What we know:
This protein is an all-alpha fold. It has 2 domains: 1-38; 40-117, Cytochrome Bc1 Complex, Chain D, domain 2. 66% of the residues lie in helices and 0% in strands. The model is unreliable at 15-35 (pLDDT under 50). It binds heme C (HEC). Residues 48-49, 51-53, 57-61, 72, 75, 80, 83-84, 88-92, 95-97, 108-109, 112 line the site of heme C (HEC).
Amino acid sequence: MVIFQDYKLFKFLGLITFLLFVSCSEENKSPVSTISESRTTEEIYTQACAFCHDRGMAGAPIFANTYSWGQRVDKGIDTLTYNVKYGLNAMPAMGLCADCTDEELKAVVQYMLDSLD
Length: 117
Ligand code: HEC
């Protein structure tokens, strides 16, 4: 009887391990598809731009800080987006969003401009 119970416990643990394994591999799949298929402009900013633009790293114009942007705003959305796409001095090309489309980059730049007074 004791042996039988141990065997049941063994099977039970095996099932738990199997379920954990399955649920982990499911979890690994979902974030990838969520990010590449439907990401909002705000999410892109947070993931690919905020690191430098929230604090003005290396002279980066700061989010919601009109003074730090100075004359940059006058360049217009298209020139600004071009500079984001191809890089400008310490500003790396495409920020940290290597797979962003032109439309996404433009939307993020607009999002940053909208944060200004
Ligand atoms: C590694 C830091 C870093 C990251 C990440 C980064 N930037 Fe920048 N960004 C800078 C710096 C530094 C400048 C100022 C460059 C200069 O004028 O010398 C800048 C400038 C800019 C400008 C002004 C360009 C101009 O023509 O004056 C825009 C717009 C901009 N960044 C948008 C973005 C966007 C959008 C992202 C994310 C997709 C991003 N940046 C990610 C550092 C960064």
